[in-house]
Structures are given as structure tokens and as C-alpha cells.
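Record 1 of the preview.
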Amino acid sequence: MTTTGDKILDKALSKIGEKSLFTKELENALERNEVDLVVHSLKDLPTTLPPGFTIGAVLKRENPHDAVVLHPKNLGKTLDTLPENSVIGTSSLRRAAQLKRRFPNLDFKDIRGNLNTRLKKLDEKEDFAAIILAAAGLRRMGWESRISQILGPEDCMYAVGQGALAVEVRARDIDILEMVSVLHDSDTVLRCIAERAFLKHLEGGCSVPVAVHTEVKDSQLYLTGAVFSLDGSDSLKETMQISIAAADKSPEDVDEQAQRVGVTASKISGEAQDNAEQLGINLAKLLLSKGAMEILTVTRQLNDAR
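->
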């Protein structure tokens, strides 16, 4: 199936203004009972799903970080060692904002298309010295050899849900929900619930630079979240943590009310899920109290005016 996001290739994603760019057509097929489940990149799914749908499985996360893919003539270099004013291609406001801040000597420009198209634009023309792509997508396509550099959180934090695959189903289909629930990866589910709750409470989307980094360690879930201005000059970043140790509670019954930011995971501790969701909300509230909404409002206005 082809989605709106696949078809519109002459505009930056942040300028199209459609929340379900890569999901709407697939959800229409699900609603018409033409298919029983749909597999998405979780980062493409809005934090609020249409009524009647739920995420029935979140698979073990691939590497969520962004990767640098160099033009063949620049092999062996990194973003640190590329010549001044080298042009870097990215379709993401989030990546551009962080990397402009970290590498002010480089020039960042939009590049659209699927992975094949972007790699072709990089290799066959001299327009870009490098492009930035999700490492997970390159690895899933078998193109890991094209990765020249993985960007750590100190350079570029990732998008909410990046690297995770999600299985979307009809919320009323208990048998399908039960079938796909075995695919859930507990740590990934809890990390992504926290990330999605953070984004939802900020009212963010692809039109604003919002970035995250999560980690599970010793039954603690750590969430770092940040918002940026378009050029990265203004930003807010904070980290919070919460316990996700499982309590002695029976698994929840499978029902639509058990959703947390669109995710149904009845076999994972409800208390841990609630804590993960609360962590995301609390971190968003902290950033909002420090002026995040002002940064995001100005960013949206500037992006709309571009």
C-alpha cells in the first residue's frame, strides 16, 4: 500500500500538516476489514490513535539512533572532519536543529524520498556531502555497510518511538490482540510509552523539534527529553527517572480502556506502564514550566512561514 507520506515527495514532512502521513491509508484498510493487522514504524504513529484502533504489539527495538551516510568521495570522514559549509541532507527538523547546534560549520538542507531515493540522490549527485538517516531503517534493509557514523545522544537525540516496530489492530479483535501480544518487548514498550506520553503532553509532532533518549537500568526507567528552536540556538533539556519494578498484581484484562498512549499491553505490569506514562507526563510538565511552549510556538510559526 502507498500512503500520503510516500506520495508527497516535494515538500518537507513538517510542511504537509497531516498527522497521519504514513498511516491513514493503512488504517482505512484495517477499518474496512481488508486486513487484520498493520505493521508500522512506531515513530510514524500519532500519540492519539483513531477510535477503535490500538497498538497490540511493540517489538524489540532496533538501534534507535541516527546515522551518517557519506557521499562516496567523503568516505572515512565524520561530521567533525567534513569541510566547512558541507551540505548535509535531512528531512527532519529534529535532526537539523540539534546538528546545527552541534556542527555550526555545516549546512543542512531538506531531502525527501524513501531510503532508495535518498541514497540515490546522495550517490549520483554532488548536492550532499552526507545525509542523516535512522540507523534502524538502514539495518533492516541490509544496508548497514553504508553507515559511516552513529550519532550518540550528545550529538543528536532520537525521535519518539524511533527504531521500534508497532503492530496496529482493531481494539475489539480480542483474538488478534492475544495473538500479537506475544511480540511485545517489555523494555521497549515501557520506554516508548514514556516517550509517547512526553510528546503527547507537549502537543508535539513532526512540525516541531522534539527529541528523546530512554534507558532501562536496575528497574529504573530514565527519560531525557528536549525541545529545540529551528536553528537549535534555543533549547530545553531535562532528565527524570521512575521505578518500573513489577508489583504482585494480576495482568489486566484485555480491553480498550487498558490503552496507554495508544498501546495495549495486558501481559506487562499495569503499574509499570502507568509509571512509564507518568514519567513522560512529568517530564513534559517540567519542560513546559521552564518555557518549552514558547520555544515550540515560535518554532511552529517560523516553520509555517518558511
